[in-house]
Every structure is written in structure tokens, then in C-alpha cells.
Design brief:
This protein has four helices and four strands; from the N terminus they run E-H-E-E-H-E-H-H.
């Protein structure tokens, strides 16, 4: 049985940059339990990914594979951001390279939460460490 977590005072709409990894599903569960709304993106050839049917994910967006179509990937991310009013994008894997580059020219790409709310470490601190993947979350360099 999971321990009851405190609910977020200011819930975020969080977009995970890839839904195919078990750590993505674990983060989605933890963020939802903390009171946030979680969205994910899945790359085009993967119609079904590990987060696709999770009750912890509000919606899954399909985007092009970033390695094959970096501009299309970023455009897909931006559509998801606008559609779901995303507050923060959390890169899950190599997508960070494409998102970091895009954020240099696109200030609308929220790789950090809005300045007037909780800092990323506080948002991530709401996530209880329930797996080895999350044990390292506090060392993320935001």
C-alpha cells in the first residue's frame, strides 16, 4: 500500500518527453499522486508505449522520432504544450539534446516551471522515492 503523499499546492501540467520507458511510467504515477496532471509524448512508430494506457497519464501525443525529424519533434512538443497548457517539460532521455537546442531560440518551451511558482527541486521533491530510478532524481541539474 502506498503512503499518502501531500497534494501539490499549485498543481502543474507536466509533459514527459517520452512515454516508452518504465521510469516515465513511474514518474507519471508519482507526479499524479502528488496532485499534478501528467501528459506524455510517444514517437511515431511506437503506437503503444508503456505509458499509453496508464490512468496516471491524461493524454499521450504522437510526435516524430527526434533523430529522424528534429524540427517535427519540436513542433509536436510545442503543439502538446499549447493543447494541454503545459507548465514544465521533463526530458526523459536523448530528447534533452533536441529540447535544449530548441529552447535557445524558443522561449515558449518550458523546460522549467514558471518563475512565480515552486522551483523544480520543490516540484520534484514532492515525488516519493519508490524505485531505483527515482533515487537519483534529486541530483538533476535544474
Amino acid at each position: 500500500m502506498r503512503s499518502r503523499q501531500p497534494r501539490a499546492e499549485h498543481p502543474f501540467n507536466i509533459l514527459l518527453s517520452n512515454g516508452r520507458f518504465p521510469v516515465s511510467l513511474d514518474l507519471a504515477r508519482q507526479f499524479r499522486l502528488a496532485g499534478h496532471r501528467v501528459y506524455v509524448v510517444g514517437e511515431d512508430p511506437m503506437h503503444y508505449h508503456v505509458c499509453k494506457f496508464s490512468k496516471d497519464v491524461k493524454h499521450s501525443y504522437r510526435v516524430p522520432v527526434p533523430r529522424e525529424n528534429p524540427d517535427g519533434y519540436v513542433e509536436g512538443i510545442m503543439r502538446a504544450i499549447q493543447d494541454a497548457n503545459i507548465d514544465i517539460v521533463i526530458p526523459m532521455h536523448e530528447e534533452i539534446f533536441y529540447l535544449a537546442e530548441a529552447s535557445q531560440t524558443n522561449p515558449e518551451l518550458p523546460l522549467h516551471p514558471p518563475d512565480n511558482t515552486a522551483s523544480p527541486p520543490r516540484v520534484l521533491a514532492q515525488v516519493s522515492v519508490s524505485s531505483p530510478h527515482l533515487a537519483q532524481i534529486h541530483v538533476l541539474p535544474f
